[in-house]
């Protein structure tokens, strides 16, 4: 159906919820309070903007469900796609890490995944984009990262440093062992590799500055991950990083918000009632105005569940909760044509039955006006 209407649903408009028909034509939202063409009855359901996920790596479980067990990228991408649209996610940034580690997060593997996304983009239901998480000590792969950014639409480049913590012995032993296992190396060989990488630390800051400049030139959106201080946020701000992902201190998050910048935390944190690794409590941060975006992080059902949990527990109303997973992440990524239900925007929509607020159910998902998931 290229032209159709959705009627009788509670539609989330910029001003709030209204029971009005909306008309979709040629993949766009063509009109509010008007109906034409085929009709979809959304009685008893919310009609919401599709979820925009700017930071997710749950696809890695489809690539490597167990250590040393690998599946081809095409299989993993299409299985991930089914999970995304069934959970109401209409735009997904796959967080692909470029690290000095061999294996799943190596440059070669990330390039292979980016090529697979490009080959399969037209056959994937969810609009699937690339979020390159560049480990700042991966100095030898900087040029390759820039080449990928040039070829990917609406790309995100995030600056990550998971090396310093490991090199200084501050990484938890079990996490360090998991990193070695993921890289396919014995623990002593992985430790020696960390030491060799750490020896080049004087080259890191100049390379970050160069990468930021070049990435902006090719139109990528810049983010900074795991910022540990206000000073670090200010430094990355000056380099053009527009938002702070998973800041490590409330002061860092407060500085970002004071400058009108978005702060990204994990939706699973809200669903579980706290961080699994002792990081910032996302629900408290939302209450205090220190978090404006929730991402899937490692679990695709989490944004939908988090929005309704925040509503159910009175942290905020559903309209404000939904901004955390649709409007605001679209702003982070510079995707001005999605994230809200307004004429002229892409018809990325989901119908949600929340009769049971603990278990909201996606009944239908539309991406650019095409129904890609149907449980009506």
Describe it.
The chain has 376 residues and is an alpha/beta fold. Among the domains are: 1-49 and 339-376, Urease, subunit C, domain 1; 51-225, no CATH class. 37% of the residues lie in helices and 24% in strands. It is built from 15 helices and 18 strands. The chain has helices at residues 60-63, 73-86, 107-120, 142-151, 163-167, 173-183, 187-198, 204-217, 230-239, 250-258, 267-272, 282-287, 302-312, 318-323, 327-333, and strands spanning 3-7, 10-13, 16-18, 22-25, 28-32, 38-41, 46-49, 51-56, 89-98, 127-135, 156-160, 221-225, 243-245, 262-266, 293-295, 349-353, 361-367, 370-374. Strands 8-9-10-11-12-13-14-15 form an 8-stranded parallel beta sheet, with helices on both faces. A 6-stranded mixed beta sheet has the order 3-2-7-16-17-18, covered by helices on one side.
Main attributes of the structure:
Urease, subunit C, domain 1; globular; 15 helices; 376 residues
Summarize the structure.
By secondary structure, the chain is α/β, with parallel strands linked by helices. The chain contains 15 helices and 18 strands. It has an 8-stranded parallel sheet with strand order 8-9-10-11-12-13-14-15, sandwiched between helices. A 6-stranded mixed sheet has the order 3-2-7-16-17-18, with helices on one face. Strands 5-4-1-6 form a 4-stranded mixed sheet, with no helix packed on it.
Blueprint (SSEs and pairs):
Blueprint: E1 3-7, E2 10-13, E3 16-18, E4 22-25, E5 28-32, E6 38-41, E7 46-49, E8 51-56, H1 60-63, H2 73-86, E9 89-98, H3 107-120, E10 127-135, H4 142-151, E11 156-160, H5 163-167, H6 173-183, H7 187-198, H8 204-217, E12 221-225, H9 230-239, E13 243-245, H10 250-258, E14 262-266, H11 267-272, H12 282-287, E15 293-295, H13 302-312, H14 318-323, H15 327-333, E16 349-353, E17 361-367, E18 370-374
Parallel strand pairs: 1-6, 2-7, 8-9, 9-10, 10-11, 11-12, 12-13, 13-14, 14-15
Antiparallel strand pairs: 1-4, 2-3, 4-5, 7-16, 16-17, 17-18
Helix pairs in contact: 4-8, 6-7, 9-10
């Amino acid at each position: 159906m290229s032209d159709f209407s959705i009627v009788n649903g509670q539609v989330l408009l910029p001003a709030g919820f209204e029971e009005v028909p909306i008309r979709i034509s040629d993949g766009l939202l063509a009109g509010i309070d008007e109906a034409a063409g085929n009709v979809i009855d959304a009685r008893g359901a919310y009609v919401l903007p599709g979820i925009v996920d700017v930071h997710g790596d749950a696809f890695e479980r489809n690539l490597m469900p167990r250590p040393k067990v690998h599946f081809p990228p095409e299989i993993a991408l299409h299985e991930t796609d089914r999970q995304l649209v069934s959970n109401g996610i209409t735009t997904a940034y796959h967080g692909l890490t470029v690290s000095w580690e061999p294996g799943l997060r190596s440059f070669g593997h990330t390039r292979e995944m980016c090529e697979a996304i490009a080959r399969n983009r037209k056959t994937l239901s969810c609009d699937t984009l690339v979020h390159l998480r560049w480990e700042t000590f991966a100095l030898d792969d900087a040029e390759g990262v820039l080449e990928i950014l040039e070829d990917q639409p609406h790309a995100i480049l995030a600056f990550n440093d998971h090396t310093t913590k490991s090199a200084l012995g501050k990484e938890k032993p079990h996490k360090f062992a998991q990193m070695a296992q993921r890289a396919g190396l014995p623990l002593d060989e992985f430790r020696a590799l960390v030491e060799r990488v750490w020896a080049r630390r004087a080259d890191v800051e100049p390379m970050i500055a160069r990468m930021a400049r070049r990435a902006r030139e090719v139109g990528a959106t810049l983010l900074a991950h795991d910022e540990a201080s206000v000073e670090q946020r200010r430094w990355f701000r000056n380099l053009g990083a527009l938002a702070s992902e998973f800041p490590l201190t409330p002061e860092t998050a407060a500085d970002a918000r004071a400058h009108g910048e978005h702060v990204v935390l994990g939706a699973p944190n809200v669903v579980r009632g706290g961080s699994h690794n002792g990081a910032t409590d996302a629900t408290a941060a939302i209450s205090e105005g220190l978090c404006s975006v929730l991402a899937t992080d490692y679990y695709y059902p989490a944004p939908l569940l988090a929005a309704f949990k925040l509503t159910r527990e009175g942290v905020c109303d559903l309209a404000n909760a939904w901004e955390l997973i649709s409007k605001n992440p679209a702003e982070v990524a510079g995707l001005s044509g999605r994230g809200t239900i307004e004429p002229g925007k892409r018809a990325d929509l989901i119908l949600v039955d929340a009769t049971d607020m603990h278990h909201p159910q996606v009944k239908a998902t539309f991406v650019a006006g095409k129904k890609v998931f149907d449980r009506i």
